Amino acid sequence: MMMNTKANPISGKPSNSKLYTQENNPMSLNPDDYTDAKYHDPAHPFCIGCGKFASELEEFIDAAEANDMLSAEHYVRAEEGTYNRENGHFLCTPCYVKAGMPSGPRGWTAP
Ligand SMILES: [Zn+2]
Known about the structure:
single chain, 3-stranded mixed sheet, binds zinc ion
């Protein structure tokens, strides 16, 4: 009888990450690609939709300038409603729209 191993059918690697699940991952990023600590650092907000840091997204660079803030990262941490203070995840505007504009009784933050 064959042993039934629980390897990830897509990557072939065992899935030890519970960062996103099929249910809460709005953009179906492969969580195995985002296990590095730099993607879970509240000091460096990371859009889990497009896989970019706030500092790489023009939307937030411009907003920071318009609001006299030090950087796009400062802007996201202060103003972005989807920003998750625990892991630094958020969704930029296009990704939020693509995810179906999720909301909740106390707001919605990225998983
Ligand atoms: Zn994005």
